[in-house]
Amino acid sequence: MTMSSEIYATTLARLLDDTIGVLPAVTLPASEAVGWRLASDLVTQHPSPSFDNSQMDGYGIGYANLAGGRFRVGPDVPAGTEPTEVYHYGVNGYGHDTAVPIMTGAKIPDDVVAIVPVEEADPAKFVEMGDYVQLPPVEVGRFIRKTGCDMKAGVLVAPEGTGIDAALVATAASQGMTQFHVRARPRIAVIAGGDEIVEGNRPVAAKVFDANTPLVLGLARTHGLQIVATGTTTDDVNDFRNVVDQIIRDHKPDLIITSGGISEGKYEVVRQLLQRLDTAWVGSIEQQPGGPQGYGIYGSTPIVAVPGNPVSTMVSMRTLVLPALWQTFKSGYQPVSIQARINGAVTGIRGKTQYRRAVVGFHDGQLIAQIQGAAGSHLLAQAVGANALVEIPPLARIQPGEAITAHLFADTRWDAKVDPTPGGTPSQSPCYETERRSAEKSAMVIVASTRAAAGVYSDDAGPHLVEWLHSKNYATPQALVVADHDLEATMERLVAGEYGPLPDVLITSGGTGVSPTDQTVEVIGEYLDQDMPNVMTSVLLEGIKNTPHAALSRGIAGIMGETFVATLPGSTGGVADGIAVLDELIDHIVDQVRGKDHKH
Length: 600
Prior knowledge:
Function: Catalyzes the insertion of molybdate into adenylated molybdopterin with the concomitant release of AMP.
Domain MoaB/Mog: 189-327, 444-589
Pfam families: MoCF_biosynth, MoeA_C, MoeA_N
Number of helices: 14
Catalytic activity: adenylyl-molybdopterin + molybdate = Mo-molybdopterin + AMP + H(+)
EC number: 2.10.1.1
Largest sheet: 7 strands, mixed
């Protein structure tokens, strides 16, 4: 059974709602509340400002002096001073021609009805008390902030559920509030590991350091989640159960998130434990990376399991776990998705929505998404600097400049450098070595043969094709030999960018017959944007010259994005027939696809 990412995230939310339910409100000091959400409406207790005050440094004057003139300067009224302490009998009691030196934020004396900024006075400065100053005419109320002009008492400042930010903290502080009632966050424990994990910081042969726990902790910090415990386990299911029991006993988490141990391997301890629970599901969802997923209820504690490759963990958290937590508890930050223009061509894989790491930024006022790194779920370093995941629907052909959905991380910044459209291509994975000669054109050969992949016999067709492509000056790595049933996954990885940018030419060998295991034509046919049946007709006619068995081939040819694809038979004779035809056509086809002029 498979599910879409959206349905699975909703399923997780329902699980969390059924097992955890409504979380209680908690009280936090204002200094710790930023990033949390209000558990109740925030209502003003006092008007703001709570008294009439000066908006400027200047001279305050009464009704009798609005027409301007020469005035005698009275005592200063600094901010924080009660005016009656300075002017015991009011300003008019000091003299009807008085100008009051008053500072920004100071309470307005009773007799003052307007403020003249000091820079408009003559001289344009504060003079000594008893000296005279010339002031221009002014209207009533100028530069006086009236009581309650920002907020009146008893009005709503922010409703329940509002995220607390610096402005809200400051507003509450202006009301004398030092605490907030906030929505509690679910208490989450994280368990990762397996026998391959080494503790400490010293490398050990055949083991790796735990990157997933720091990854989830980092996402928790930036997305407003509360992690109360972490743990590691071995590949023994009893050890895993003991770790779970201890964390529940010591920390009482609302939710446990596990990373790894959920795939189809022999030592998948999370899968083994979940499959023993009464309420559980383990399977695959229609996304890449992060296909294997699972959940269950251990006692009364829900467990959500994500796969262990680091990028799979990251994608699963962003596309599944974070949306589920938001949907259930409004916990942390609401996941945000936007539309951006992609600056390079991308092709979707069959049957799955693919999520690629990307940098989203502005270029000349346009919001651009730029694929970062190859698609491999183990290529963690290529995620550094990515601020979003772009969503590529199954078998989509998205061209430069077209809109694409980008799922932002909560700490996304907008100062990332991106290339304009069109331009920008996924960088090539260093985990796949390719031979780059001086040629500007590239090619790839895939041999679909279950027996050759198993080592039953040595493949000769692939090397023959590679040698021919080299002679045509196409940079071509050694042929990739895969079992027939692995061709579909290989094509998914190819179009996902795991082998680098798509080549100009892709030649397959094998799997074009009528055997039950032959599926090359079906797999490749899903990816072709344009069919070129006459190419394969020419190969057929060439082959019939040598053997009538050539008529049994179901080979196809066509264009996949900007790549010419041809599926040749698996025999060396069938490959030779294909080469004989393609030798005269291949350069011409590639030039046409590239939009170049051609000689014939």
